[in-house]
Amino acid sequence: MSADQMNAAKMDAIKVSSLDVRIYYEDTDAGGVVYHANYLKYMERGRTEALRDLGFEQRNLKQDEDMVFALTRTDIRYRRPAMLDDLLTVQSELMVAKGAKMVFKQSIYRGETLLVDADITLACINTSGRPKRIPKAILVRLEQEQ
User: Fold this and answer.
1) In a structure prediction context, what are the per-residue pLDDT tens digits for the chain, which is 146 residues long?
2) Of 1, 24, 15, 6, which is closest to residue 47 (Cα–Cα)?
3) Whole-model pTM?
4) Contact 15, 54 (CB under 8 A)
5) Do residues 76 and 95 touch, judged by C-beta distance below 8 A?
């Protein structure tokens, strides 16, 4: 789902979570600019922390529910570069959770400046790789957050 489709549907985020990330030398190229693929890593951390904020740790979901997440789609927009030593904030908004699918809108800021934003679609699957419906306990918890 694109950002325009989300806005058109006037969807409210189920949960908004923020994570601060400092940019280290290992995150950058020779010019001190963050390597483009690292933004996906920061977003992964942001989604993990958003779920943890809701009381769901991925290790426990795997062990107790036989459930893991697979990224199935990403629509990412790079707007401005992050640089060495920047302090970034990764915002993660869970927009949709139904069936075996979750959709997040994620944005990365340096202060008030939007650097990167993305629409991320995840499939919930079991450890054999087959689609798995989101457990009812998770959906009930998410409904409480609306």
Assistant:
1) 344 443 333 346 676 889 999 999 999 999 999 999 999 999 999 999 998 988 889 999 999 999 999 999 999 999 999 999 999 999 999 999 999 999 999 999 999 999 999 999 999 999 999 999 998 888 888 777 76
2) 15
3) 0.85
4) yes
5) no
- Cα 44 to Cα 70: distance, rounded to the nearest angstrom: 11
Closest listed residue to residue 6, CA positions, set 120, 116, 133: 120
Structural domain spans, the chain: 3-145
| Strands of 15-22's sheet in order across | 15-22, 87-98, 101-110, 113-125, 68-78
The candidate with the shortest Cα–Cα distance to 102, out of 93, 110, 111, is 93
* CATH 3.40.50.720 applies to domain 3-145: no
From the list 20, 27, 29, 117, the catalytic residue is 29
* 29 catalytically annotated: yes
